[in-house]
Amino acid sequence: MKKPNVKPVNIKKVNSNDIKEFPDVLAVEEPLEIRICFTKNGEPQEKNISVTMRTPGNDLELAMGFLFTEGIIFSEADVDKVWHCETVEKEEEYGNVVKVNLRTGLELDISKLERHFYTSSSCGVCGKSSIESVSQNCSVLPDSSFKIKRNIISKLPLLLEDDQTIFKHTGGIHASALFGANGELKLMREDVGRHNALDKIAGAALFSHRLPLSQNILLVSGRASFELVQKTLMLGIPVLCAVGAPSSLAYDLAKENNMTLVGFIKKEGFNIYCGEERISPL
Q1: pLDDT for 9 beyond 90
Q2: Which sequence positions are flagged as catalytic?
Q3: Do residue 100 and residue 183 come from a single domain?
């Protein structure tokens, strides 16, 4: 069930001399509804737990990653089946609903399910009852020998850009990318939402049994929000790099949990906000 991730449109380009019409493409943004199926008191239950605005593609990874980074599941073994629902009521829902069948006997934190929040493509901590309800899922990263050289960090945005297919065509999309210590690109996902791109990385890691990602670096396009730090910690990633700046809450959470947080990466350098011990000289 493949849906397009770009949409052709006609635009008018304006300059000081004239106006001309040109064909262009936009990144597609559509809602994805995530439903979970589980058993409560011996009775089958189905619950819609999120609607997120996303770019179609890797939807099953997105659903799995979302459930993991929200602390609803703790491994791929907690899920029996994940699929696109084909018995939808409206035509526009076709391809935009994913069902996740949780394993029998999985104990759910009902308070997390009752949040029933809506997630926009650009939001931070939206719909959550409090910041505390998010941060309590995180755990302090252990001290380790994982290191990355300074010159590798400066190269990461260019390596990401070379692999961003949809961005090259539209210019209107975010990305998250997983790198090894030597700067080798291991995995990249794109989406109109920063947190969706990261959840797709999480889902891919779950499907391939790679968690925790303790020997990897995560690069995100744009800024580093509180929610991106939280999701990165849930994946066990020790180094989070951002093209833009972190927020104050992102910094606080990263520092509190022993994460290395880097921002404003350019060819000539970058800012280290915390965890500098993981970054070694050339």
Answers
A1: no
A2: 123
A3: no
